[in-house]
Design brief:
The protein is mainly alpha-helical. It has five helices and no strands.
């Protein structure tokens, strides 16, 4: 059984956290990954963070101008489909290395010190 803690948070605070999550993956880290010629930046971290943000927005009714990572790349980048396909290949290769044993984004990347 999961250890659950239900927290009430004001909508404006939650919206702030969502916007920070969005900025982290869709405005900052994506460009770090795209500019990383040595493939040292993690595409798994990028895609998992993007998916988590998209899922939260859908779940809690926040509008995004796209519904998937692929759609984001296609609409926001020239040659977006090619960029997405190349990143997706890297994602699949990298994900084999990570071997997270079916852990979700939160389990993979939560700082347990908080």
């Amino acid at each position: 059984m999961y250890n659950q803690l239900l927290v009430t948070i004001e909508k404006k605070d939650f919206k702030y956290f969502i916007s920070r999550l969005y900025d982290e993956y869709f405005e900052d880290y994506v460009y770090e990954v795209l500019g990383d010629e040595d493939n040292e930046k993690s595409v798994v971290v990028l895609f998992e963070g993007m998916n988590y943000c998209i899922d939260l927005c859908k779940k809690y009714g926040f509008h995004l101008p796209f519904n998937s990572i692929k759609e984001y790349f296609i609409t926001d980048f020239e040659d977006g489909e090619i960029i997405y396909n190349n990143l997706y290949k890297r994602y699949l290769e990298e994900d084999k290395i990570y071997n997270y044993e079916n852990k979700d984004f939160r389990e993979r990347f939560t700082n347990d010190e908080l």
